[in-house]
Design goal:
The chain is mainly α and about 160 residues long. It is built from 6 helices and 2 strands. The longest helix has about 40 residues, at about 75-115. The chain starts with a helix and ends in a 9-residue tail after the last helix.
């Protein structure tokens, strides 16, 4: 298939595919007319690159992974490089999930707190919110809300 077809099938732009080729991540055969031609192996490679990018790998890291596999003295040594890289990414992913779960809790707590503000009858500016002691709030003011009340010092 030509590069346009590969782009359509993978959802990648032609420019991205050219970049993959420039970085040594993708090979193309050439037709007699000089067109790039790709087969099933290259299609699978583009999907693989996309999946690794989704996991947060940069193109240089992917190139490094391919280089490590290519220069390994044995198949087990090559797969050890892959395992170590994936293990590191798994640890990063788990840490990111933990941070996102904490953010979700913070947002949920803040939204719950802010529901009590719907019935507020205070007149004036939002500065009165900083001293709110209304009983409609069932929990202490969350940090995502309290940060709003910090006033800028005048310079």
């Amino acid at each position: 298939m030509k590069i346009g077809e590969l782009a359509r099938r993978t959802g990648k732009s032609v420019r991205a595919l050219h970049l993959y080729e420039e970085k040594g991540l993708l090979d193309a055969d050439r037709s007699e007319g000089g067109f790039r031609l790709y087969g099933a192996e290259q299609l699978a490679r583009v999907y693989w690159i996309s999946k690794l990018q989704d996991m947060g790998f940069q193109l240089g890291q992917i190139r490094g992974l391919l280089d490590a596999v290519a220069t390994s003295s044995s198949a087990p040594a090559a797969m050890e490089s892959v395992r170590e890289m994936f293990r590191g990414k798994l640890n990063e992913t788990r840490a990111q999930i933990q941070r996102l779960m904490e953010l979700e809790r913070d947002l949920t707590d803040s939204l719950g707190y802010l529901e009590g503000c719907r019935a507020c009858n205070e007149e004036g500016t939002a500065s009165v919110c900083a001293t709110c002691a209304d009983t409609r709030h069932s929990v202490p003011e969350p940090t995502l809300v309290s940060g709003i009340h910090i006033t800028r010092s005048s310079s």
